Amino acid sequence: MDALGITTGRFYRSGTLVASAGEGSVYTVEADNSILLKILTRPLTAREVDKLRTLAAIKPKPSYAAIPIEVVIDPSTRTPVGFVQPYFAAAVPLTRVLDSHGRTALKLPNDLAFRVKLCRLVAEAFARVHAANLVVGDVSDGNFLVGRNWLGRATVVYVIDCNSFQVTLRTNLGNEFFPSGVATEEYAAPEVQSTDWSTSLRSVYSDSFGFAVLAWKLLFGGSHPFAVVTPRSVDVPPIGERIEKRLFPFCPGSPMPSNWKAPLIQPSLGVLPVEVRELFFRAFSSADPRDRATVEEWCDVFRGWERILTPSLPFRILGAWNGSIADRLARTLSTFKPYLGRAFVFAVLVTFALMTTRFDFSRSTSPGGVESHPARLHSDSPRTKSNRPRRIDRDLFPEPIWNPSPPSKE
Question: CA 285, CA 275: separation in Å to the nearest integer?
């Protein structure tokens, strides 16, 4: 489907289908691989158009989120049908890295240090959204993408489906809120579960709950923090009801039935630092949403844990140098492996610079700026062949021998 920009009047011709869901379909744009065209399944209301225009007016455009760029209309009916957003083509959905099978398929590390790094990157994405006075609102693992650099390392997490952000518009009459409008049951905070998701307002604390669920699933192989093990004859209430009643099975004193048990998780809860465990307990068990840690606190805690799990290069080499000679060599090479690509590119750049740069060390300059006499003359000297100083061959013209005695008279 083709569309027309409501602000710039630009014509967008849709290309290949990227994704499709109940909300709408996302297409590439011909002749522009940096943006996507999102066409919604239902017509946009005037209120939704105002929200999208408010998001599109954010300046400068953040590089970490797919904030709508422009509202588009159907050229034939002139009705709003969607919007244009940035395209993070090289990024992969966070859903694919929740478990070990997805990380292995993407050739990503599978150790605890990498999972902690992902938690830190997701927390930083939340923090950037909150710094822009926005609330994610609809938290879900499908609304985040993991970006990688040219070495294949995960370096950033992007936020997509930003039309579901909760926007606060400051006016002379007070704050005007554009609610999120949607929510995902397994990530919605307890205070959001029983509300009307289309009109209820969210907060940074409800975002903090959703992030805690995401971090738990990243650390424990996709397992939900409110998952329980019960006898077969017991009917388990939906996940939303368990979240609303705060039936967190890993917290001592949780108000869940006695025949419910916490599932086995890998790694065990004891592997987590005390600070991380306390933040999870505050997020999933506290009755007051304000008791939850902010995403900035999560960033600091995960950043410190990541530094502990990721030692510097000299300590990696020392840690790898034990065992048999073959094991030592293999571990040492694997330690240097992440740096080989940069070293190769650096060597190529240095070689290219040496080949394309001409150095003339034949002339030296004295500290006073006066050129001393050259050690040798080059053919590209500005002097012509005729006025070059002739070289004296000392073998043909030896030094005269000084004789102090006067010549005899004969």
Answer: 15
d(C-alpha 319, C-alpha 107), whole Å: 24
> Domain containing 295: what range?
90-310
Instruction: Quote the CA–CA distance of 11 and 1 in Å, as a whole number.
Output: 11
Which two three-digit tokens encode residue 228?
A: 């329980």
pLDDT in tens, 42-86: 889 999 999 999 999 988 888 899 999 999 999 999 999 999 999
Q: What is the pLDDT of residues 370-379, one digit of tens each?
A: 444 444 444 4
Higher pLDDT: 91 or 396? It is 91
Instruction: Give me the pLDDT at residue 331, please.
Output: 53
Q: Cα-flanking dihedrals φ and ψ of residue 149, to 5°?
A: -85, -175
If we measure between CA atoms, which residue out of 85, 89, 70, 4 comes closest to residue 37?
85
Nearest by Cα to 107 from 159, 142, 154, 144: 154
Amino acid at 6: I
**Chosen domain end from 67, 87, 107:** 87
* Beta-sheet strands, E only, within 142-235: 144-148, 154-159, 166-171, 174-178
Residues recorded for the chain:
410
Helix, strand counts (H, E) of the chain? 10, 13
Whether pLDDT at 367 is above 70: no
Number of domains the chain contains: 3
Tell me which of 252 and 104 has the higher pLDDT: 104
Query: Which position has the higher pLDDT, 312 or 191?
Result: 191
Whether residue 194 is found in the same domain as residue 78:
no
**Is residue 400 in a domain?**
no
> What single-letter amino acid sits at 342?
R
